[in-house]
Amino acid sequence: MFQILRVKHIVLAIFIVTGLFQLKGVTQNNKPAPPKVSNIVPKGIIIHSMAEYLNVNNDTLYAKEFLKSIKLSIHGFIQPNGTFDPMITPPQKALHAGKSTHKPYNNLNAHYLGVELLVKGVHNFDSYSKAIEHKGTYSQVQFDSCVSLCKRWMKQYNIPVERVVRHSDVSGDHVRGYGHGKTDPGSAFDWNRFIIAISE
């Protein structure tokens, strides 16, 4: 009888300790628990842009490493040479849109895929902001790669062309307040030509 009670106490102690580890987000090997993965039902696509490399605290970070450092993410990057560099595999949720709206949806991370067009070179905010308004910033192979990617996603997830939008369309000043809105990918990206291309 005493042996049975002792075994029960040992099992209960193990259960409690295991539960405490899980609550703290660690495994019994003292490793962080893997992040929870949540999927979305993609309703649209957001075209972003950012610097290929960023000056941060006297260091230079590649775009993907920079997003990781600030706990953001994107489904992928299109480099200036047209290469697609994936980050989050669709339809997993990525943290890319921030405060955003595109009727009837709000908080578009939960509804939209995202891709970053990388602006070649190392930039700070000022040089990047000027570059995205300068014709020729985005290469033709980059444009073509973005068209191919969006057409593939549109077909795979049954996304209509009217739900392929710019970050500035869904997170501009009209959403975030004057002077706080997003402006990417800027006038350097020929949006009208892009919409025609993904509609073909």
What secondary-structure arrangement, pairings included, does this model have?
Layout: H1 2-23, E1 44-56, E2 59-62, H2 63-69, E3 76-78, E4 84-86, E5 101-102, E6 105-106, E7 112-123, H3 125-131, H4 140-157, E8 164-166, H5 167-171, H6 173-176, H7 191-199
Estimate the helix proportion, in percent: 25-40%
- Low-pLDDT residue spans: 1-28
User: Which percent band covers the strand fraction?
Assistant: 15-25%
How is the main sheet built? 6 strands, mixed
What does this structure look like?
This protein has helices at 2-23, 63-69, 125-131, 140-157, 167-171, 173-176, 191-199, and strands spanning 44-56, 59-62, 76-78, 84-86, 101-102, 105-106, 112-123, 164-166. With 200 residues, the protein is α/β, with parallel strands linked by helices. Strands 1, 2, 3, 4, 7 and 8 form a six-stranded mixed β-sheet that branches. The chain is globular. The relative contact order is 0.16. Residues 1-28 have low confidence and may be disordered.
Descriptive labels:
globular; six-stranded mixed sheet; 200 residues; two-stranded antiparallel sheet; disordered N terminus; single chain; 8 strands
Quick take:
With 200 residues, this protein is an alpha/beta fold. The chain is built from 7 helices and 8 strands.
